[in-house]
Amino acid sequence: MKLSLACIGVMLALLMATPAIADQVYVVGNPPDPGSGNCFPWGCAYNAEYQQVYGSSDFQGPILITDLEFYNTQYNSGSTQLPTGNWTITLATSQIVGVNTITGSFAGNLANSFAVQQVWTGNINQAWTFGNTLHIDLANPYAYDPAQGNLLMDVVGLGVTLPGGSTFFDVNSTGGFFTRVYCSGGVDCGDNGVPDYGYGLVTGFSSVPEPGTLLLLGTGLLGAVGTLRRRF
User: Fold this and answer.
1) 28, 74, 129, 141: which has the fewest C-beta neighbours closer than 10 Å?
2) Taking a C-beta distance cutoff of 8 angstroms, is the pair 24, 194 a contact?
């Protein structure tokens, strides 16, 4: 009986610890271009739509995306605050929209996607120093399975002003990781964005395994506990 209770204790401890052990961050686009950066859409008065598509090969899944991160490590513009305004982030999955196949039509890219979900809306304004990281905790975490397609991020900025100077976030231009679609000058261009193939913001995705994966693991551990109880 003592052995059985000890085994049960170990199994339950593993089950409770599983989410913490499984937390991980995918940083897509490292290493960044040295001494360079871009302020669209988080670092300047960008009042328009912006999209960035990430290749499915950048991830291992399925995962639940809980947080987005953008980095300012390469170009120091001397900014003291991030812009103020309202941003809306939508994530989606697509087998059609990809790093080399995204179009300049924001609406068309979303229409050729599925599992379209608004994950966050709010203001990113905060005091800023070179080397800081912009963390955006998603109000609605996104379940993403790279086996189903590429990941599309859609951002819309409204009423954005620039109280503390422009901030230039890390970018990668080596190709293969992602592609962005933007409005020139950060001014609303309707549905006529400009694709910038193989270029985009280095992005961190904080994630945990999709809930279904954790449920299966938990069920397996509990089944093992039951087997040990019957054996002893």
Assistant:
1) 129
2) no
